[in-house]
Design goal:
Length: 70
Amino acid sequence: MDYGQGLALSDTAGIVCAGDTAPGATRQLAYGDALQVGRFVCTSRETGMTCENTRTRHGFELSQASYRFY
């Protein structure tokens, strides 16, 4: 079990600790598509994924090279 290989979304976002599987259904977003998960809207781009809380405007950016919370 490693820490930091994934992010979880609900009303908040956070780094998760998990094994080699992810719980629940998954969905792949095409570049330019968006999906709302709870209060978060996530948008897929060629440069990575951006997810932002619609109420607080806090969120994160995620790419193959890095991630950043804001």
